[in-house]
Amino acid sequence: MNYIEFIEVNPNIRFGKPCIKGTRITVYDVLGWLASGMSHEQIAEDFPEVSNTQILACLAFAADREHKFRFAS
């Protein structure tokens, strides 16, 4: 998935945290909801501006950051 179509970093929105484009919902928010046990359907019900594709984009963004993470030695 090309998450860049759905995720943006704007220093004027949520202090520059990665957000779903057109919203103030951060990738961290979505990951937190998923980690707490919310389903994609529950997230979409509580936040109708968030689509399943955008939720998957948040997961892809997080996976890509984890893949690129390097440990300091």
Keywords:
73 residues, mainly alpha, Arc Repressor Mutant, subunit A, two-stranded antiparallel sheet, 2 strands, 45% helix, 5% strand
Describe this structure in words.
This protein has helices at 27-35, 40-46, 52-68; strands at residues 7-8, 19-20. It is mainly α and 73 residues long. It has a single domain, classed as Orthogonal Bundle (Arc Repressor Mutant, subunit A). It has a two-stranded antiparallel ribbon with strand order 1-2.
Give a short summary of the structure.
With 73 residues, the protein is mainly alpha-helical. It is built from three helices and two strands.
Question: Can you tell me the residue ranges where pLDDT is under 50 for at least 5 consecutive residues?
Answer: none
Q: Helix-strand pattern, N to C?
A: EEHHH
Total domain modules = 1
CATH superfamily descriptor: Winged helix-like DNA-binding domain superfamily/Winged helix DNA-binding domain
Distance between the termini: 32 Å
- The gyration radius over C-alpha positions equals 13 Å
Describe the protein's topology:
Blueprint: E1 7-8, E2 19-20, H1 27-35, H2 40-46, H3 52-68
Antiparallel strand pairs: 1-2
Helix pairs in contact: 1-3
